[in-house]
Amino acid sequence: MTIIDSARPTAQPHITVMVPAYNEEKNIAKTLQNISGVLQQMSPHWDIVVVDDGSRDNTAQVVQTLVDIHHVTLVKFSRNFGKENAISAGLGYAKGDFVICMDADGQHASELMLTMLEKWREGYDMVYAVRQDREQESSFKLWGSRAFYRMMSASSHIEIPRDAGDFRLMDRKVVDALCALPERNRFMKGIYAWVGYKSIGIPYTPLPRLHGESAYSKLKLIALAWTGITSFSVLPLRLSSLTGAILAIIAFAYGAVVVIDALFFHESVPGWPTVVASMMFFAGVQLLFIGILGEYLARVYDEVKGRPPFIVADVVRPAVAAQPEQAAKPARRRKPAAEA
Ligand code: UDP
Ligand code: MG
Q1: Which amino acid residue places its CA nearest to atom 13 of ligand 1?
Q2: 214 alpha carbon to ligand 2 midpoint, in Å?
Q3: What is the pTM of this model?
Q4: What does the pLDDT look like over 153-172, one tens digit per residue?
């Protein structure tokens, strides 16, 4: 049953919380406990989907012991496919009237789900949490994220909300639309904005990680930003063409000057350093732009190969007694996005 919008203020929705987890053996139990504590205040119908993104520690084993206690469906990947893919997979197993995505490391306060529920009742289809603590971050992250958002808003027709991550509520309509997207290079921040729907941001300050360290190194963050830029904008290609055109005009004008000079004013000009310097410059620019073309081609190649973005090795569901409806059938069959 899908809850119609006018029924939201009084509805008792089925809520699914989706948690991607990679090497979170020390955090996941506490996180699940916090989540289920708040879920019990929100609705009588709820479940949790944990996607174990190929953890090398005992995350899956820990979750397995909690499957019945916290109504958890555990989806185990065959290896680490990355958070973006873990989220995509988790959404496919979520059967709630809305889905809330949260990190496994305890940085996302479960209590914020209550505010998200309020906003959903008011009629919003997507409620995303917006970080308020950016000023305290390292200057690399601060300036990097500023540059990223500036570039995205200048070059892409979709508006990605600043400082909003994966911590968000998504109505069934949004989830169905996300699941219907076939692309493999999934940059979720961009995809959330691309699907649209009535959205609102609510402020939050991330808590400190319970244990361990973030899986996102500087290099990984740069790679993610680059995926975002190349998935949602053709600005690098346009810049290459523009620079190429400007250089070609300059080169043509300079060539004309040299020819006129040689024909009418001087016998012959040695000009060796000029030739070498300009050759090196143009060769460098050409290589750079071939590289950028290659980046896009690589993405096209990736899509054309048609490999699945992740492989699910195993799914553990709660026992029938705990969640009869859930154990009996797999994830609910989804309508195509167009019908949503
Ligand atoms: N995560 C994941 N796969 C990965 C890396 C991270 O599923 O390859 C999960 C991780 O377990 C956590 C969330 O994504 O639940 C956010 O990761 P992390 O805390 O490392 O990143 P940060 O908080 O710095 O964004
Ligand atoms: Mg974290």
Answers
A1: 103
A2: 5
A3: 0.74
A4: 777 777 888 888 899 999 99
